Structures are given as structure tokens and as C-alpha cells.
Amino acid sequence: MKLVVLAAIAIGQVAAATLPSCDVLSGWTQSGVSRLYEGDNLYEYMDGNSEGYLIYGFVRMRGVTCVKGSEKVLIDVSQMQDAESAYGLFSSNRDVHLPVEPIGANGQVVPRRAIFVKDKYFVEIAAEAQGDHSALLREAAKALVLSVPGDAAVPQPVGWFPSEGLTSGPPRLVPESVLGIRILKRGYVAQYGSMKAFVVSESSAAAASATMEKLRARFAETQPAKLGDEALVVDDKYLGRICIARRGPRLIGYANVPPAGDAVSLTAALLGRVPE
Predict the structure, then answer these.
(1) Which residues lie across from 251 on neighbouring strands?
(2) Distance CA 87, CA 122 (A)
(3) What is the pLDDT of residue 19?
(4) Which of 38, 139, 212, 266 has the fewest other C-beta atoms within 10 Å?
(5) In 3D, which of 26, 94, 90, 38 has the Cα closest to residue 63?
(6) Are the C-beta atoms of 200 and 245 separated by less than 8 Å?
(7) Separation between Cα atoms, residue 125 and residue 144, nearest integer Å
(8) Distance CA 136, CA 37 (A)
């Protein structure tokens, strides 16, 4: 019985920690009741945007509306199934043309919106009125991140990609159809000019090998390459020169490599950064 009580207390503490409060905004008070959305009913709050959350393993969202005079700010904390999924949701919501900030694992502040990710939580703070509210939103985000539980670290695969030449911000997690290829179900993608580097992790080496076979069947006239456990090179109408290498359960490679580039050497360098 004691263990059950302790577990209930722990769950309650986590729930309280992830329930946003208007206290992060000095002089602001809560308007109305707190919001709670779980599973598929998120569409009631977000309408057409809910699908973008659900594909990343959405669990629940808790939110409050804060007011000060006629001004209004909405704070929402979304809990995802794991830290990787939360990072993926953050990476799909950030503006790729603007820098990120060290708020939680990663954050970004624009004139009317601040977002950050920490562990399995994705947090949004939005000002309703027009104008530049970035200073207020940044202050709120830095205060709120202290109450969000978990580890403020980016997923390990993000660090596998070289930072030199990286464009469009940090690598992002694509929840399905990596490179637009349905066979590549979920993975990380980094942009280097026109080129895309990617890492896809399967459940096992056998599953990854089966995926390679499907890729050979999908692309015409693939050529083998001496990388990892197996590799292929192909020129595609839409994805340009592609090299994909398998090592154990992971598929690693580059797409959209220009004619003057060396897709095999690029993939070999990325392969060397990925732990076995």
C-alpha cells in the first residue's frame, strides 16, 4: 500500500510540474479554467493542426490562458511518448530560417511565439496581440523551463551529423517517409545546402537488411558500394545522386548530392560518426 501511495504522489508531482502557471509572467493572472486534451480530442483545440502532433506520439496537452489588462498569452505544455518524439515536434514547429536558443534542450523565440523542448515535453507560449512580444515570451520560457521535469538534452542522433555546412537549423526528426520514401519510416535528416544527410534506425539488423532489399527493388539500376555491412548508390529523378549504407540496424546516407560531389565519401564520413 505504501508503494502505491508513493507512486500516486510521484505521478501527482509530475502532473503538477507540467501544469503551466501564469506565475511565469509577472503581473499576469489566469483567465478561465485550465485546458486538458488527451489523445484524439486535440482536434477540438487545434482543428486541422492536431495531426502534426499525433504523428509524433502525442499523449496530452495542458494549458492556461493568461491575461493582463486587454492582453492575452496562451501557454500549452504537450507531453509526448518520449523525448525523441518531443524533439521531433519541436523541430517541425521551429522556423528553419531563424536560430535556436539554449532554452531546455532547444528553444526558439519569435515576435509572437516562444517554443522549447525538454525531455518528453514540448512547450508553446503565444501572444495573441500583434507586435513584438519576444522579450516577454523569452522571459516566460526561461521561467517555465525550470518547472518542466526531465533532462534538457537533445537526442543523441542529432550530434552524429557534422555541424560544418549545416543549413536550415539543427537536424530534425521526420516521423514517417524520410526523403519522401515510405520505406524509410522514421529518421533524422540534416540539410547541407541542396544535400540531405539522414540516419534511419530499424528495430534490428535483419529489419534494416530487409529495408535495403526494398530500396533496391524501388530504385532501378542501383550500384553496390563498399561501405558498412552493405551499401548502394543510385541516381534518382527526384532525389539526385543517393548513397545509402547499412551498418547493423541503421541506414545512413546522403541524397541530392550534386554531380560534382562524392556521395560515397560523404556517406563514409557520416558512417564514421555514428556509433556501432
Answers:
(1) 200, 246
(2) 8
(3) 77
(4) 38
(5) 38
(6) no
(7) 10
(8) 26
Domains of the chain (ranges; CATH) run 15-147 (3.40.1000.70), 156-273 (3.40.1000.20)
The Cα 15–Cα 9 span in angstroms is 10
The residue among 245, 234, 241, 243 whose CA lies nearest residue 256 is 241
pLDDT score of 18: 64
What are 121's three cell numbers? 515535453
- Choose among 143, 147, 154: nearest CA to 117: 154
Q: What is the mean pLDDT of each run of 10 residues along the chain (276 residues)?
A: 37 52 94 92 87 94 96 97 96 93 97 98 97 96 95 95 92 96 96 97 97 95 96 95 98 95 97 94
Q: Model's pTM, two decimal places?
A: 0.87
Q: Which amino acid is at 13?
A: Q
Q: Is 93 left (phi over 0), alpha (psi -120 to 50) or beta?
A: alpha
Provide the grid cell at 118. 525538454
Task: Give the count of alpha carbons within 13 A of 34, CB side only.
Answer: 13
Q: For strand 195-201 and strand 187-192, is the pairing parallel, antiparallel, or unpaired?
A: antiparallel
Contact yes or no for 54/70 (Cβ under 8 A): no
Beta-sheet strands, E only, within the chain: 29-38, 58-68, 71-80, 106-110, 113-118, 121-127, 167-174, 187-192, 195-201, 223-224, 230-236, 240-247, 250-257
For residues 37 and 61, give the distance between their C-alpha atoms in angstroms, rounded to a whole number: 5
Q: Is 186 exposed, middle or buried (0-12, 13-18, 19+ CB in 10 A)?
A: middle
163/107 Cα distance (integer angstroms): 18
Question: What single-letter DSSP state applies at residue 88?
Answer: H
